[in-house]
Amino acid sequence: MRFVIVTGMSGAGKSISLKMLEDIGFFCVDNLPPVLINKFAQICFSPDSGIDKVALGIDTRGGNLFTELLNEIKKLENEGYELEVLFLDANDQTLVKRFKETRRKHPLVSEGRIQNGIDKERKILEQAKKRANFIIDTSKLLTRELKSELAKIFLEGKKYENLIITVLSFGFKYGIPSDADLVFDVRFIPNPFYIPELKEKSGNEKEIKDYVLKWDVSNKFIDKLDDMINFLIPNYIQEGKNQLVIAIGCTGGKHRSVTLANELYNRLLKQDYSTNIYHRDIEKDSKLKN
Length: 290
Hints:
Helix content: 40-55%
Mean pLDDT: 90
Order of helices and strands: EHEHEHEHHEHEEHHHEHEH
Distance between the termini: 56 Å
CATH architecture of the largest domain: 3-Layer(aba) Sandwich
Number of domains: 2
Pfam families: PapZ_C (PF22740), RapZ-like_N (PF03668)
Strand order of the largest sheet: 2-3-1-4-5
Binding site for ATP: 8-15
CATH class of the largest domain: Alpha Beta
Low-confidence stretches: none
GO molecular function, one term: GTP binding
CATH topology of the largest domain: Rossmann fold
Organism: Vallitalea guaymasensis
Shape: elongated
Largest sheet: 5 strands, parallel
Structural class: alpha/beta
Binding site for GTP: 59-62
Number of helices: 11
Strand content: 15-25%
Radius of gyration: 22 Å
């Protein structure tokens, strides 16, 4: 039996996650009052229940009832039940944007600023987040990427370290990404932009990759970067960080940064980290010309 409690910030993707878990065979119940968890667990864990995977959506819509969540979890564990807690999170800016786009009110503030509800909810959820077995920050995740992260945990059984890594290529002429944790400048590498037959191609194409990686300086850089990132990641995990954005920039964000971001991404994939890649500015030069 796999018994999962899904909770987290309003707007962070709990409903979507429950739907995705349902699609991979979980029996899902949303917004069950925490005081009923124990009774529900007894039914699910009974030999004749016919249920082997359960996901419960529990959130702050239950008001004061939510404060009983941790107590109910402890009761279940004391009675020998095994359960897991999945916590969905997102940064404040993303949550505010999502509420505005859907024109929904925050469940903890009937009137006034959405931010006030977010602040209040973070305090309420603080202990639940600490108890979580898995924390997914959905701030930068597309729906398909969230589905992939859930599949890694609940379908493929891969080790999950509560850290999602985004490797991001960008062009300095369009500005440094505001959400970057680590920024690396690769403008010291020879630029294929000045070679006519390569100018219109991108770092996703073999010709650019071959050109950028034919230089010793490029390979030394990616080796040293790979070594440093792999030193940092376990320390970030230990510190409790759950989102790491590694930004690699060149002048326009089309050639060198894309190639080296792809190289780092492929190396991280081999080590089973939860890793995504995003080329922010790869098409901008073309769009400006049009």
